[in-house]
UniProtKB/TrEMBL annotation:
One of its GO terms (molecular function) is transaminase activity. Keywords: Aminotransferase, Pyridoxal phosphate, Transferase. It comes from the Bacteria. Residues 5-164 form the N-acetyltransferase domain. The keyword Transferase applies. Transmembrane segments: none annotated. This is Aminotransferase class V-fold PLP-dependent enzyme. Its cofactor is pyridoxal 5'-phosphate.
Length: 539
């Protein structure tokens, strides 16, 4: 855990020494509340009664706050009749000395300290806390859920606002605060992005994106986009590809539209995104039936063949290649064989698989992809790959792939910024060793199982870049996910289908520092230990 943060209650002498030093730095040098001294240490007058929630990295104190319940509080000495200002409560404590080192101030450490406070208050039975909040940070305190009351207290050079915080509102306010963090302050530089998107963007892609836009009608742009289309086709072994301005949802809508004149079909689902293909088909009013499989399992290929043999009227099959929700990699070669054997059209959602592993789309009728996942560019472009002549008669113009192929240039407005960012990302992808992330993922799945954690996808059909894992029901994926964010690891857990199943998800979309992946299991284990011990039970 050398690169991560840890949150705990201070018990060691060396921790208290750093607490006194940070106390001095904050409440003498920054906020002139106490006098200077040669030792540059400030021992709080209630030190022996305080419990300190602290944040450490490599035995260095980065942040702290103190909590105590013995009366009188420091606020009792500043504000008469304190009880008259407070809402009904059972047990009261006072929060003091909230401080974070200047160079690391930001939401992650602050939210971690507040989480630690919540855990401590739960253990002690406190349901209301009071604090003297510096007037310099009133907006921040209110974001965290503190409610101001009474007049200002203190000296003119160091004024404070009395505030209280109710235990039952703290989780809601912390979640809201976390959601606002991108607007309040960007994530720290060393955070690890294990999200399915937006993914980590390298400097070469960023530089291309911020260049001055060029016309999508210019000779240079037409030449470059044709070259990019060629490279995309080369990457997946398809004859043609069209690039659209929009997400993977748009690309799948285009696939659905181009199936509208292909007769009856079957949509295969074994996860959230297979079920979304069913929704695409319904909205496009396709003639189809759903072949529903168990989430987290491979497609029941034998049963699929039986259905196709029993219903010769079925002319097409539409499935997800890499089911992002579960981390299951469906067998492309089997699907191609099943369809080719029966002269049936095969369509695929390849949104999460393109750029993550070698793909051969030869013979596939239509397939969707995007710029913002394993290709490691910005979200905003989607692709439809195809190998056969298409008829777009009666389709909306933007969805008519035949219109694209017959156009002498680019038929509709394009963003050169997105295109050139994709170009640089694609050049890196074409030289990528796909086996690296696959080895990382294999090792990570093994370590998760060693911790007693259930990985959703079995090893024989696990994807090389998406690992969904399930926590026991007595643990909370939402709380553990937030705790991991405090440690600098950003996982997917907020989607409704993940929350419903108590799942967390690691996505390796691109290239990663092996040290980040190796450190993750121990950091996760520490978060799970805290939860299992009952420290994170308040939700």
């Amino acid at each position: 855990m050398s690169r991560g943060l840890s949150f705990k209650i201070a018990i060691e002498d060396w921790e208290f020494e750093q607490i006194h030093a940070l106390n001095y730095k904050t409440f003498v040098q920054e906020i002139p509340q106490h006098g200077v001294n040669k030792e540059k240490k400030l021992v709080d007058k209630f030190h022996e009664e305080n419990s300190y929630c602290i944040c450490l990295r490599d035995r260095k104190l980065l942040g702290m706050l103190a909590c105590r319940s013995k009366r009188p509080f420091s606020l009792d000495l500043k504000l008469a009749d304190l009880a008259t200002y407070l809402p009904p409560h059972n047990a009261l404590c006072e929060i003091r000395l909230l401080s974070v080192e200047k160079e690391v101030r930001g939401g992650r450490i602050l939210v971690g300290l507040m989480n630690m406070l919540m855990e401590y208050c739960n253990e002690q039975g406190y349901d209301l806390a009071v604090i003297s909040g510096t007037v310099r940070q009133l907006k921040l305190y209110q974001h965290l859920g503190f409610v101001p009351f009474g007049p200002l207290v203190g000296k003119p050079e160091a004024m404070f606002q009395p505030m209280y915080l109710a235990r039952e509102t703290i989780v809601q306010n912390l979640n809201s605060f976390l959601e606002q963090q991108p607007r309040l302050k960007p994530a720290v530089k060393d955070s690890v992005n294990f999200l399915p998107g937006p993914v980590r963007i390298c400097e070469a892609v960023k530089e291309a994106f911020i260049k001055t836009p060029v016309s999508h009608r210019s000779d240079r742009f037409l030449k470059d986009i044709a070259q990019i289309q060629h490279k995309l086709s080369q990457l997946v072994n398809s004859k043609c590809v069209q690039i659209l301005l929009g997400s993977g949802t748009l690309a799948n809508d285009v696939v659905a539209a181009n199936l509208s004149n292909k007769g009856k079909g079957i949509v295969v689902s074994n996860g959230e995104f297979g079920e979304r293909l069913v929704d695409h088909a319904q909205r496009a009013r396709l003639d189809f039936k759903e072949f529903k499989n168990t989430w987290g399992k491979a497609i029941y290929y034998d049963q699929l063949e039986i259905i196709l043999d029993q219903e010769p009227s079925i002319k097409w099959v539409w499935a997800v290649h890499l089911e992002t929700s579960t981390g299951v990699l469906n067998d492309l070669s089997k699907l191609k064989y099943i369809c080719k054997k029966r002269n049936i059209i095969l369509c695929l959602d390849c949104v999460s698989s393109i750029g993550a592993l070698p793909i051969d789309l030869k013979g596939v009728f239509l397939a969707s992809g995007v710029s913002g996942k394993a290709l490691c560019s910005y979200p905003g472009l989607s692709f439809v790959f195809y190998n056969h002549a298409l008829s777009g008669q009666g389709l909306p113009r933007y969805m008519d792939l035949e219109l694209y192929s017959k156009s002498e240039g680019v038929p509709f407005t394009h963003s050169s910024n997105f295109i050139y960012a994709l170009q640089n990302a694609l050049n890196l992808t074409l030289s990528r060793d796909f086996s690296i992330n696959a080895k990382f993922a294999e090792g990570l799945r093994r370590q998760l199982r060693a911790l007693g954690i259930k990985v959703v996808a079995a090893e024989e059909y696990a994807s090389p870049n998406v690992i969904s894992f399930e926590l026991p029901m007595y643990l909370s994926s939402e709380t553990v996910g937030a705790r991991l964010e405090n440690e600098g690891y950003f996982l997917s857990y907020r989607s409704s289908y993940l929350l419903k199943r108590n799942w967390l998800q690691v996505c390796l979309m691109g290239e990663y520092d092996q040290r980040d992946i190796e450190a993750f299991p121990s950091i996760l284990a520490s978060c799970l230990d805290m939860e299992e011990d009952g420290i994170l039970k308040a939700k």
